[in-house]
Protein 1
Amino acid sequence: MIPIGKTTLPEYKDVEKKFKEIFETGMVSNAKYVREFEEKAAKKIGVKYAVAAPSNTTAMIGVMSLVEKGEVIMPSFTIANTYYALKWNNLKPVLVDCDDYCNIDVDEVRKNINEKTKAVLGVYMFGACPEMDELTELCEEKEIDLFIDAAQGFGGKYKGKYFGNFGKAEIFSFDPSKTIGIGEGGIVTTNDKKFMEDLNVVFRNGMEKPGEMDSMRVGLNGRLPEMCAVIGIEALKKIDYYIERRNKLAERYIKNLENVGGMEIIGNPEWCLSTFKDFVVLVNKEFGMDRNKLKEELFKRDIHTRKYFYPSIHWMSSCKEEFVNLKLPKTEKMSLKVLSLPIYSHMPFEDVDKVCDAIKEIKE
């Protein structure tokens, strides 16, 4: 069986001593190793501040709680969590279309900015980014905050600069499927000191100082377990290698599939080093079957794939009535054709060949 992904973990011997210490001291949450993880993640990326959280979703809800009430522009081509971070905070999502790489289309953002717009929430789709200079300049010109759901992007770069350096804040994920998998967890990066301080208050259930019980604002539990932080500290040492290897796996996929008729490779734009959290193809009618049928045929051969992301936000059962008249042509096209193939940092190169051979056999 070839899974869609696997968590790439450090050697147990590299974390055993610290795990033992955690058990002996009983300091299991938000203690010294979380602080060390925050400091080392910030240093690695090149930002002033990093604030750990128990998940990307929790972190986004906390971040969005600091946004003034109004409209937030975001892509429809993304996972539900991005949308729900706004809904939990009574912000109004304004969904826009994607570009050729399934990232938010900057021109569509520009068209939808008005006096009610308080922020833009972009996404690093599949580990690649939109044209960040253009998006950043637009938000600065319109004096609105830019946030990035960077869940899939840790270790990626835009024009040589690590993801995490853009906008007001970026929110990464460290769940088992991501470039750094620590069990569960997330981190928010920012160069804004006041924003960092406010977010820390939010993550302490709205309490300004640790141990105080008077909550000063709406907050939540933003604690990260120490054992997760220990795994993260070790993984940071190898993140560049992980990204390099994922790119080599992607190159192998591209070489094997570039001449397969009816299959279009998403790839990544020239301006960024993608993390290739996912390797994605579009299955067109010329392939001889649709995306769903190909998925079924690969599953029969013990090859697991995912439809990232179908349905898009404006088609989801929980909110499609809210967007009943919304038409987003490129998002809809991508959502109906997209298929994510297996990829993870320690995936054997031979497994890429097996997946590609299976695809070619199915097409025949």
Protein 2
Amino acid sequence: MRKAADLWKARVRAVDRARKAARRGEPEGLHDLRVALRRAAATAAALGAKSLSRDAKVIARSLSAERQLQVDRELLARVGKLGYLSPDATTALAARWEKLAERGGRRIARAADGRAVRGLLKDLEKLSRRRRDDAVERLERARRKAEATFVESLEGKADDVMHRHRIAVKKARYLAEDLAALGVRRFTSQIEREKALQDALGRWNDLGLFSRRLAGSRDEAEERGAVTLAAEIEHLLAALEPTIAAIRRSAIEISKAPPKIVPIRRQATR
């Protein structure tokens, strides 16, 4: 069975590799950095490194706006190709969002090479040199605590509840994958369901935030008298509503599938 030190070493490699990719401006660098930080935060919280977990979350959250803008620009290109916006409208929005991305790119580069992330890497490296005999027990306890927060169906739940559900599912999945990396595979049968639910909730969240940015761009267009652009954006917002509702419904249906109950491992008596 692998040791907790191997888990920390994997976190060091993931964060360092992703931060370098983000600093170089690679397309998936920012996404990979935030995922690596979230995984490190989940592992650290479970294994008692509360300060490290908090620091990783702070860095990841500081890059949320830049990541969402990246997603929004990808979605804009997609809806433009599908003909939901005219080429002129797509170009106008892309140009305005490009200016935001240029400023965001500089913030990403600074964060990826900044004192906070370098300090985090040092802390992770220190943990990788420590012996920890209770890692599996602590990870499993954290996993059960996390999964207890999303056992209910999302039917009838408000958007803010669905958002918290998405975060809880993601954390539980990360912990299950940590356990699997240490040779404990009791939770692996649940990972596929949780990934499907996480993906559906992620698409719903991304489209909702994309719509919010579009609404802001529509308001800006109206203020400066760009009536045609505002009308096109309004038309796109109306077209997105049923898609967002369908993805939301899909997530709710996935949440109804009862999770497999993993029996609690009995500790050996002496």
Protein 3
Amino acid sequence: MSRVNLKKIILKPGEIPFAILKLMQSLDPTLCIQDDKGNVLFGDSGSASKYAIEAESGTVGWVLGETYGAELAFLLTELVAKDAEKKSLANEVLGLYREINLLYNLSEKLGTSLEIATVAQIGLTEAHSLIKATNGAVLLANEGTSKLDSIAILGDPTETQTQLEGIGDILRHVITSGKGELNNYIRLDPRYTNRGVPVSGLLCAPLRAKGQTIGAIVLMSDVIVTYMAADLKLLNTLASLVGPAIENALFHEKTMREAKEREEQLQRQIAQLKIELDQALVAKEVSQITETDYFQKLRQQAKDLRRPREST
């Protein structure tokens, strides 16, 4: 949470809060405003009663005043709350803009390829550019088994694969439940098994397409890290685009594979048909030769020549 700048909120010449302060000071000359460290921001420090100016993070300042001290402290507390609300709204709008921009750019990138590995790597690279991580992967669930196939890797492949084996149960839970997971204390998780390459924290989001979970995208850190809910939300947003793109790539690959198989089968059929056709042509030519008068005459002559030999 960002630090509240009380001075910036109340001491803007020409703004309503500053005008109110000047008016109240004319009514109560003992009014004084201090920050949380006791530094005077407005008025003169005296021995008047002291009232806290509160914010969500705690006390951010004090009002000293005999007549209107409590009222001014209440008013400034409300101003601080409104300022925090305004900043929160601004951050939310900025986050939404960032998310929309991300979706647009990623959609364009994913649309340039129908290769599964390329699509997965684009999604993983985009996630790493926005969220701190040392290792990561895009995984596909192997239909009919509990095996997970890595189709894109972030970091050293051997180390990352070892890390993935250590969090295998967590990954399978994400895929089975269809819900993302954020864990900054992975070493305390009973599902975690250290395989020699430790994991400190992780973010994992399911890859879904056509209502089914087909895999997961995971980011890991081998050093202490603090992932936030906003990070998981961002990864889920990325996964919502990467999942259908991988599904399209899988369908394209299947279509191409089936087309190749049909082509090979057709080539075999054509080859077999050619053989049969050649055999039929040979048989026809032989038949045409054997049915000629000349061939019949030769056959008869051959029989006549064999008779004397047979009689001796």
